[in-house]
Design a protein that fits this description.
alpha/beta, Rossmann fold, 6-stranded parallel β-sheet, 3-stranded parallel β-sheet, 10 helices, 11 strands, 40% helix, globular, binds NADPH dihydro-nicotinamide-adenine-dinucleotide phosphate
């Protein structure tokens, strides 16, 4: 039976480190989050970011804009935050409503305040191997592995999903950590032939329970990035959170596995806090 890659204990270590550095610096650090619209999942992610800021002794400001906001309104907020020396990190909560061109918005953020590592300059630095900050989810996964004494070096790592926010930067970090990386997606022919070779399998596709035991190599390390809301009348909220991995089916076959919730999501926010610290220049 697999051991648990526990996000709670790994996150506590990161947040403690950030909190003590912020306190020692005596400086006021600030993360500004722009939330456009009223998507409930986005609102809950933003709330957890606010909470983490408070836990680290930083200011977490949320700028809420209506769902019908224009591109110009969002750009105006970004320009103001870019100029404000009291703001060390800027994050646009994704996805944005359809009328907002996300790529243009992300390019408008000052790369020196881009806590999500989504500005093309920061993506370029990541590919080059000298990232200004680590992309939050992939960076959190690397920290989670390290916390449990697991190394990617020499392993065949298979990443399922090629989004700009998870899959592609994940592949890059694993490559820099000397894994041999295969990046799969919805057009991959014979997906099981690849996933069954994975000594380290990272799944980020947004399909609840998609990865079952027959897709997993015996003894693999399985990292489940998925956060999916699945209707469940037995829950007070009417839904439960499910990962992309069928946990009960896969856990007996692998060596390590992340729970959902309690795994990668916690590490994403922890890395975000580290990124604000790093961009602020506090040692
Ligand atoms: P996207 O929807 O942007 O990307 C999904 C990727 O999965 C695409 O590359 C797509 O391929 C691929 N894919 C979809 N279906 C299949 C399939 N059947 N077989 C193979 N590949 C497939 O998602 P994100 O990367 O933003 O998020 C993925 C999941 O991770 C979601 O559940 C999301 O909520 C969660 N997430 C969790 C975070 C955390 O902190 N834990 C942070 C960010 C996301 P193609 O490119 O060909 O379409």
């Amino acid at each position: 039976m697999a051991k648990i890659l526990d996000g709670k204990s790994a996150r506590a270590v990161v947040l403690d480190r950030v909190r003590s550095r912020v306190a020692a610096s005596g400086r006021a650090l600030k993360l500004s989050v722009i939330l456009v619209g009223d998507d409930p999942a986005s609102a809950s992610y933003v709330a957890s970011k606010e909470k983490a800021c408070a836990a680290c002794g930083m200011q977490g400001e949320v700028i809420r804009l209506g769902a019908s906001s224009t591109r110009e309104q969002v750009l105006a907020v970004i320009e103001r935050l870019n100029r404000d020396p009291a703001v060390h990190g800027i994050l646009c909560q994704l996805p944005m409503p359809a009328q907002i061109p996300e790529a243009e918005i992300l390019r408008a953020i000052d790369p020196a305040k881009d806590v999500d590592c989504l500005h093309p300059e920061n993506l370029g630095r990541l590919v080059e191997g000298h990232p200004r900050v680590l992309p939050c989810t992939p960076g959190g996964i690397m920290a989670l592995l390290a916390h449990h004494g697991l190394e990617a070096a020499g392993k065949h790592a298979v990443v399922l999903g090629r989004s700009n926010i998870v899959g592609k930067p994940m592949a890059m970090l694993l490559l820099h950590a000397n894994a041999t990386v295969t990046l799969c997606h919805s057009r991959t022919r014979d997906l099981p032939a690849f996933t069954r070779q994975a000594e380290l399998l990272v799944v980020a596709i947004g399909r609840p329970g998609f990865v079952t035991a027959n897709l997993v190599k015996e003894g693999a390390i399985v990292v489940d990035v998925g956060i999916n809301r699945v209707a469940d009348g037995g829950q007070a909220k009417g839904y439960r959170i499910a990962g992309d991995v069928a946990y009960d089916d896969v856990a007996p076959r692998c060596s390590w596995i992340t729970p959902v919730p309690g795994g990668v999501g916690l590490m994403t926010v922890a890395t975000l806090m580290e990124n604000v610290l790093r961009l602020s220049g506090v040692p």
